[in-house]
Amino acid sequence: PDKMSREKIQHLRALGAEVRMTRSDVGKGHPEYYQDMAQKIAAELPGAFYANQFANPANPQAHETTTGPEIFWQLEGDVDAVVVGVGSGGTLTGLGRYFAKNSPKTEMVLADPVGSVLAPLIKTGKMEEAGSWTVEGIGEDFVPPNADLSLVRKAYSITDKQSMLAVRDLLSREGILAGSSSGTLLSAALRYCREQTEPKRVVTFVCDSGNKYLSKVFDDIWLAEQGLGDQEQHGDLRDLVMRSPRTGDIVTVGPEESLLNAYGRMRRSDVSQLPVLDGGRLVGIIDESDILAKVDGPYDGRWDRFNAPVRTAMTSNLHTLQANQTLDALLPVFDRNEVAIVFDGEEFIGLITRIDLINHLRRRAR
After folding, report:
1. Torsion on CA atoms 90, 81, 127, 131, rounded to nearest 10
2. Residue 326: in which H helix or E strand, if any?
3. Which residues on neighbouring strands pair with residue 152, listed in sequence order?
4. Of 142, 210, 297, 316, most Cβ neighbours within 10 A?
C-alpha cells in the first residue's frame, strides 16, 4: 500500500524484490487493493507462491505452537493479559487458542487504530464503515479469515497521535526504537493497566524496529505535516511554517555559495526553493527555475555555470508577510507564482508554499 514508509520499500528493492505500489484508499475487492493485486500477480506469474497470511492456517498455528509457549514459559505460567494488534489476525488467534487451553484466566486485549473496523465491531457487534489511519501494519477494513475476534475480552481504539507519541516516549524513556504499531499496542496496554484495581502481569509486543520509520514517526516535520505532533497552534500563518530558523530545521544557502550547492540541498531535502541568508539575514530566495535560467544555454561551458554564486541567480525583490496574518494573505502571493516569506516582526521565521497550504487545509478537513 502506498502509505508504507519509504524505508520498507527501499529495503525490499535492496533485497532484489520488484515492488508494486497499490492504493491505500480502496477496499478489499478492488483490483488495486494490495491483497487482490498480490493474488492476481501470483496467479499470472509462473512458479509464484501467494502466502495469503490473512487466511493461511499456518499463520495462527505458528503462534499457537511457538509464541504462546515462549510467553508462558518466560512469565513462569502467570499471564493476566496479552495485548495484540490485528493485521492478518494470526497473532491474536494463535495466542488466544493457546491461552484458552493453557491459561483460561489470560485475557486477550485488542489494540486497534481509530478508523479500523475491528474494535468497534467487538464493542458494538456492528460493522462500521472503515476510516483512514496512519499507523502501519495493523487495523483492517474487513475481518481477516484468520482473525477469531471471539477470543478478545477487551478492545481499545487508539488514535494515530497517541500511537506516535507513545512510540517516541518508548524511545526517550526506555531506549527502545520501535515502529508505529508498537505505539498503538503500548497505548492500549497502558490503558488496560490503568483500569485495573490490582497488579497484573501484562504482555505486549514491539513488532518492528523503528529503523523503518525514521522518515515518518521519528521525523518532526512529517509529524507536523500530518497534524500528529504536539506543536502549539496559533490560528495564523505560523501554523503553516514547517521549517524555521527557530527550530534549526530550515534548509538555507548563502549568497556566495555555488548554484551546485543550492541544487544539491534542494534535492537532498526534497524542496523546490531555498531562503538565501547572509549572516542570519534574509537577502533573497532561489528556486529551481532560477537555477535553470542561469545554467541553461549552449552545451559548451554549461557545467561551469553551476559554479556561479547564488547571488547571481536569486530573487532579491522580496514580498513578505507577517506571522499573525490569516490564510487569506497567502492567495495573492500564490497568484503571483511566489512563495510566501513569513516574518515575525523583523525576524524571518520561514516559507510557506502551495503544498503547505493544501496540507494544512487537508488536516483541517479531517
Report:
1. -80
2. none
3. 108
4. 210
User: Which is nearest to 119 in space by CA: 81, 90, 155, 83?
Assistant: 155
The pTM is what?
0.83
CB atoms within 10 A of CB 320: 11
Question: Is the residue at 322 inside a domain?
Answer: yes
pLDDT per position as a tens digit, 163-219? 999 999 999 999 999 999 999 999 999 999 999 999 999 999 998 899 999 999 999
Contact assessment for residue 290 and residue 314, using Cβ atoms and an 8 Å cutoff: yes
- What's the rounded Cα separation, in Å, for the pair 159 and 114? 5
Residue whose C-alpha cell is 477487551: 154
In a domain, residue 257? The reply is yes
Q: Which domain holds residue 274?
A: 233-365
* Co-location of 64 and 13 in the same domain: no
- What CA–CA distance (Å, rounded) separates 137 from 50? 18
**H/E segment holding residue 340:** strand 340-344
Q: Please, what's the b/e burial string for 35-62 (b: 16 or more CB within 10 A of its CB; e: otherwise)? A: bbbbeeeeeeeeeeeeebbbebeebbee
Tens digit of each residue's pLDDT (9 = 90 or more) over 320-345:
999 999 999 999 999 998 899 999 99
Q: 107-113 and 81-84: which strand pairing?
A: parallel
Using the 3D structure, point to which of 163, 185, 213 is the last residue of a domain: 213
Residues 153 and 275 in one domain: no
Kindly state whether residues 35 and 103 are assigned to the same domain: no
When divided into structural domains, the chain yields a total of 3
Provide the pairing of β-strand 281-287 with 320-322: unpaired
Helices 259-269 & 288-295 angle (0-180, nearest 10): 140
Q: Is residue 223 part of a domain?
A: no
Q: Are residues 29 and 161 in the same domain?
A: no
